[in-house]
Amino acid sequence: MTETAILVLEDGTVFEGESVGAPGLSVGEVVFNTAITGYQEVLTDPSYARQLVTLTYPHIGNTGCTDLDDEAGKVWASGLIVRNVPRRPSNWRSRIALPEWLRARGIVAISEIDTRKLTRLLRDRGAQNGALMAGEIDVDRALEAARKFPGLKGMDLAKVVTTDAAYPWTEGQLDLDRNAFVSATPKFRVVAYDFGVKRNILRMLAERGCDVTVVPAQTPVADVLAMRPDGVFLSNGPGDPAPCDYAIAAIRECIDRKIPTFGICLGHQLLGLAAGAQTLKMKFGHHGANHPVIDIDSGRVMITSQNHGFAVDETTLPANVRVTHRSLFDGSNQGIALTDAPAFSFQGHPEASPGPHDVSPLFDRFVAMMENPA
Ligand SMILES: NC(=O)CC[C@H](N)C(=O)O
């Protein structure tokens, strides 16, 4: 028997559909993602904390779920909104169907709604706060909850999703033939600030010979320096980068000491802030796996994976920060490098997962920087 579910936006728009997850009420910012695969990686990406994700691809759940595809230890997205979930998944790696996976994790999800209409609405009016409700339905209560959600602007979520304690990471890439992860021999000591890190980033570092120690977001920089790192990595993460003053101060110290530093997504925005630039909230952000980005130095265009709602404001960049990448969708900043320190960062997701691998050479650039910090 199917249960009813509703999605209510703060502007009063109501979508009615079927529950494909747990019963309950969940609120957040509603964002659309245009990737056609990778729903499990999206749902477990900590950068989606306090967001209700709608996927524009109409059939979601086709390949089921496996623990090996989790990007973190739990589902971080606040809920899932899709057009249709196929009755039965089909893939040799699948262990469990998406609706059961969602229910087991207490995640509210809705299907059978017009996701094209919802996406157009978000594109025209900008990202909106919303509430998903399944089981006992009460439209007024859902609308009130959506309107009460304060929005992501000004919200520091990095310290909410980060690890409680430091831990080492050695696992490399997934060997699909063996359906298991392989490791490489470590050459560099890397401290990774966890603002909401995705496992595939850590794997790509480990695979390139990095002996990674993941540390909590608020770890004092003195503790990091005491580990004598060859490089510092700044992870992706949810929320607004601007209020993360502890991270911005720590990064400033790393740059001043000329420690090779590499940031991804939230880490990119935080490097920008540490360098003296400002960030802004975008209208509906970038969430997808087909975003063209130009590498300014080479003129090459790469197809990239993206997931962000904030951006570095290029007009505020100080003289010692160079623009390295730009979005070909809207011209927004996608990468920076410092001219007086070995530090660079990228707005999109070079680790893909899900998405194309065009930007993975940025990990090699970080390794080269540690080999030759100059
Ligand atoms: N994936 C990320 O790291 C996202 C960064 C930031 N929370 C944003 O939305 O822009």
UniProtKB/TrEMBL annotation:
CDD domains: GATase1_CPSase (cd01744). It holds the Pfam family GATase. L-glutamine binds at residues 47, 237, 239, 266, 269, 307, 309-310. InterPro entries: Anth_synth/Amidotransfase, CarbamoylP_synth_ssu, CarbamoylP_synth_ssu_N, CarbP_synth_ssu_N_sf, Class_I_gatase-like, CPSase_GATase1, GATASE. The active site is at residues 265, 349, 351. Pathway: Pyrimidine metabolism; UMP biosynthesis via de novo pathway; (S)-dihydroorotate from bicarbonate: step 1/3; Amino-acid biosynthesis; L-arginine biosynthesis; carbamoyl phosphate from bicarbonate: step 1/1. Residues 3-133 form the Carbamoyl-phosphate synthase small subunit N-terminal domain. The keyword Metal-binding does not apply. Residues 1-188 are annotated as: CPSase. Its EC number is 6.3.5.5. It catalyses: hydrogencarbonate + L-glutamine + 2 ATP + H2O = carbamoyl phosphate + L-glutamate + 2 ADP + phosphate + 2 H(+); L-glutamine + H2O = L-glutamate + NH4(+). It is an enzyme of class 6 (ligase). Keywords: Amino-acid biosynthesis, Arginine biosynthesis, ATP-binding, Glutamine amidotransferase, Ligase, Nucleotide-binding, Pyrimidine biosynthesis. The keyword Mitochondrion does not apply. Small subunit of the glutamine-dependent carbamoyl phosphate synthetase (CPSase). CPSase catalyzes the formation of carbamoyl phosphate from the ammonia moiety of glutamine, carbonate, and phosphate donated by ATP, constituting the first step of 2 biosynthetic pathways, one leading to arginine and/or urea and the other to pyrimidine nucleotides. The small subunit (glutamine amidotransferase) binds and cleaves glutamine to supply the large subunit with the substrate ammonia. Composed of two chains; the small (or glutamine) chain promotes the hydrolysis of glutamine to ammonia, which is used by the large (or ammonia) chain to synthesize carbamoyl phosphate. Tetramer of heterodimers (alpha,beta)4. Belongs to the CarA family. This is Carbamoyl phosphate synthase small chain. It comes from Lysobacter hankyongensis. The gene is carA.
